[in-house]
Amino acid sequence: MSTSYKLIYFNIRGRGEVTRYLFAQAGVSYTDERIENKDWPALKPLTQYGFLPTLELNGGEHSITGSLVIPRYLAERPEFNLAGANPIENAQIAGVANFLQDLEHAILKLVRVKDNKEEVTKDFTEVQVPNFFGKLDGFCSTGGYLFQDKLTWVDFYFYELYEWIVAVMPNILDNYSSLKKLTTTIENLPNIAKWIKDRPQSAY
Amino acid sequence: MSTSYKLIYFNIRGRGEVTRYLFAQAGVSYTDERIENKDWPALKPLTQYGFLPTLELNGGEHSITGSLVIPRYLAERPEFNLAGANPIENAQIAGVANFLQDLEHAILKLVRVKDNKEEVTKDFTEVQVPNFFGKLDGFCSTGGYLFQDKLTWVDFYFYELYEWIVAVMPNILDNYSSLKKLTTTIENLPNIAKWIKDRPQSAY
Prior knowledge:
2 copies of one chain form a homodimer.
Chain A: E1 5-10, H1 17-26, E2 31-35, H2 40-43, E3 54-57, E4 62-65, H3 69-75, H4 87-112, H5 117-139, H6 153-166, H7 177-187, H8 190-198
Parallel strand pairs in A: 1-2
Antiparallel strand pairs in A: 1-3, 3-4
Helix pairs in contact in A: 1-6, 1-8, 4-5, 4-6
């Protein structure tokens, strides 16, 4: 019997969307349970860590929590096939995710800043963007993907961060042609194009 | 032929020490290469991401970077045996690490704060400590370890965070008896006791 999956997250893309991309790309069915903000205070104390996303397997027989833990787990399942060929490659791909997480923190700092907005924005555009996007562009300049020549879960993680930042900085990838090409590759995957068209719309 | 390992990190515990604990506990030999601060500016541009720790396998045949990526990789090797029994358990253990990482960020915020020191300290002691340590204490109240009844890599991650915070808040675990017992368990592991006694001393 195949595994049944339920993803529990808020009604936004946010930290749940990478997992939703993986389900879309792999063509694996799942329940996309979206918590409304008004229901969260009652639910929060019942969760293991006090946050989401959580993935429930087989009606709650097992659960896995964490915005990057879930995609890595699924990607390494044979029916998803969005990970490496062995444990070393899987760790190297997790290393790319770790780097992308630092980019995520830089983006969060930018969008949440209250004081010193000008200073943080200057740092983001002049220091963070060249550092992160420069290195990432190099990673995919040969094989077309962030890890060698294989589409993996971290490409979707990058794409979700890109969706967020391009909404406020439309020219963000102008100097990074390999990353620009990667976003086009992802958007043109038939299952992903369909998901982007059909999914619930939200600002982030 | 067995794998040869070289851990490359700075001459501090910091984000390299969890990996060093795993090598000590498993009794696996490795090269503990410690970079001096003065040598870092020249080395940094040669690294994949611009940060450490990096683990080199078989003299550089493969390398893995990231302070949590490396311990998870090693823990899941049979000769280390400090992970779960299957991919689901390994993801759940990574979920604990993800939660501990949020605690690490709260500790970093506390020790790095310049403005609003009083406010951040109050938040840490009254909000962060009960939240994180309360949940973690619950996790190990039954089986004695953070994941069920098995010593895993996240116990060492917790211990390293504890070492950091107990130096400035000696009574931090007074209300968390299961966590207190866990730290005693870890300190009394023969290989760990020897490592703590023999390792290079540093403030953090």
